[in-house]
Amino acid sequence: MAEKTGVMICGHGSRDQGAVEEFGSLAHHLANRFPQYDVESGFLEFATPIIRTGLEKLRDRGAERIICVPGMLFAAGHVKNDLPSEINNFAQEHPSLDVRFGRELAIDAKLLRAAKARIEEAERRAADNVARQETLLMVVGRGTNDPDANSNVCKVARMLWEGMGFGWAEVSYSGVAYPLVDAGLAKAMKLGFRRIIVFPYFLFTGILVNRIYRWADECQTAHPDVEIIKASYLNDHADLIDCFADRVEEVLTGDNKMNCQLCKYREQIIGYEDEVGTPQVGHHHHVVGIGTDGHGAEDHGVHHGRHGHHHHGHGHGHSHGHGDRHPPHSQDEDTTS
Fold first, then answer.
1. Which of 30, 100, 121, 330 has its Cα between 20 and 30 A from that of 323?
2. Residue 67 contacts by C-beta under 8 Å, 6 or more apart in sequence?
3. pTM, entire model
4. Per-residue pLDDT tens for 21-44?
């Protein structure tokens, strides 16, 4: 008899109810993509249901194998530490279950197509027609204390810049890493472009995306001679859903390889030499399940009970640690997205 397979979609969580609802919508899309699996979703912090609740529901409904997929773009502290800590603890408590951890969405051609579509939507909404050679693209990442994850935002920006033919591209961050969006826009204004497109490279809305848009509005008010356009984040674009589906399939086929060449927990990265091999541990227990905007969100989990199919594969194991250092010019990590 084939093993019954469950899929656990692991979100970051947010105090913003709109972000929780958008994540729930994505989870429903994935449940529809995988009718043969039992799909649940949950959050690492702030919002409910928490990840542990989803895992327990899958177990209680008879899952013998659980595929856990991070609903996050890049592998920083949450993917390398907090999620593995949650999932490993659950797996240790239930040794009869086959629990596997997938990789982050990472830099992917599908996500670049989704990003391109969001930027083009913003261009179409603009009042006038400004050539891309006269446009600066500002790609905004979340910002972490992991330089590898931060550098991925730069690569995304470069590929969109060259692929779409913009006159220039800059990168900024909503928190933790330097430069923040306000400082990035102040620098961009000195370059003389007629238009700036501010593109949050985020999955969903939330406090951080609202902060990005507020900075863009303040810059527009201060510089009325330059057109500033706010592009949408990725949200439920079809290519994003396809990328999530790929991550589930990778676990089942055994092609589940995280890129660890520049991970500060495995290699001596400049400025983070003392973090190699530090213990892997979660660090957001104090905000797990506290609710969003003063509300619980237990009804935003998704589950679709189905019969599982059997596939051969293996999960991806890591022993990453968590460091407390922040790069120069950074702020403490904002966990209220």
1. 100
2. 5, 6, 7, 8, 37, 100, 102, 248, 251, 252
3. 0.79
4. 999 999 999 999 999 999 999 999
